[in-house]
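Here is a typical sample entry:
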Amino acid sequence: MVNVANDLGAERQQLPADAGGEATVESLQRVVDHQAELLQREDEVNRILVQTVLAGGSLADLCEALVGLFEGVALVTTSDGRVVATAGAEDAVATVMGLDCFDRTGRLIVEDEPVGKRDPGDGPRSERTMVRIVAGTSDHGLLAVFTPGRVLTTTDVHGLQRAAAVAALAITKEQAVAAVEGKYRAEFLRDALVGRAGGPAEAAAHAASLGWDLDRRMVVVVAETDEDDDHTTRETDELRSLQERFVRAWVQAVRTREPKAPVAGFSQEVVALVPAPYGGEGEQDAVMRSVGEIVKVVRGDGGGGRRTFSTGVSRPVESVADIPRAYGEALRAVAVGRQMQGESAVMHFDGLGIYRLLSLVPDTADLRAFVDEALGPLATDDQTSHADLRQTLQVLLDTNLNVAETARILFFHYNTLRYRITKLEQMLGPFTTDPQLRLTLALALRIRQMRGV
């Protein structure tokens, strides 16, 4: 009733008055009719929401009900803006997803979107309304409706807030079911990763009962948060919430593209078994494109409270028996990829090259000593010229001592490069004539590029 009164307040103030200052009978009748219409509208909203709850409706069912009420597009997002349910005409949904409130990955930019009733004078932005989905102290995301050509009234927003309570029930139910299912799925996937899932036929049958397909060519993908949770100032509850959000993002992104691909979260990592549909030339590029698309969706534009993560991809496996080996490759790709590229690295095991061997040296002090001995004064940046000389040396080695090509790449005059080569040999030794020294210098430069050495 309060919301209905709020909607009627402005109309009362605008009633036409006669010479005596009293509203006409016709105007009062319009107010009464409008009040009855608002009450009927709120009763209709309540009835539909109650039916949705009693029917155990999902988020998709709730969105469909809202589209019937508000005529437009309805959607539910997570707290960081990932869309998890939509309803509306296909072309209308496509139009909405192209609005400026969504980033290039399809994430709703929740940081910039106010909740509650919109100002009618806010242009096209006033035609979208969002309310929070809250259960207790847990923020589950946003419920949003897009109503082209119409701004929701206070009564409508109140109905939308009631719908958000229904959404909270649906999400809580889904999370409870997912937690139980996820536990069994995660335990089975962990067994498969360490070689305890049984024979290939037995493991494939068990996976099929969980909705997964292991009877195909696959790669193991490991995504690991860059932040070290063992050395952080975050509270335990915050870490748990962030990791749960990270896992949900990966599960949704993978299942959207590969509904039968196994995916589960463990501690600071998420593991997925993504199909590698064909062998031969170009397979690695195809797999990395597929994984890159998933990573882009999970990462978004870095908004919504996301944490950075690095991703490693294994070589293809043909059998469940090969999964443990591939899991080790993916873990190695994550660790070395982060050393090579820094945070947010995406690396295939076959792309590690010599870094794969270098990463096997357990003592980084030994690697540091090797670099110091091989590069001498060039191992540090004590002088500004050291970085330039290292770059010259790197390009020389990469071009197999092709002076003309090196001068072209570095935009040096030929004589300038010859002078630099002479200076480098005075500092490092006769690397232009000693292949063993060239190998040593090439390794030292690669090691120096590794993070944490």
The two ends are 68 Å apart (CA to CA). The domain at 364-449 is CATH 1.10.10.2840 (Arc Repressor Mutant, subunit A). The first strand starts at residue 73 and ends at 77. Residues 1-5, 10-15 have pLDDT under 50 and may be disordered.
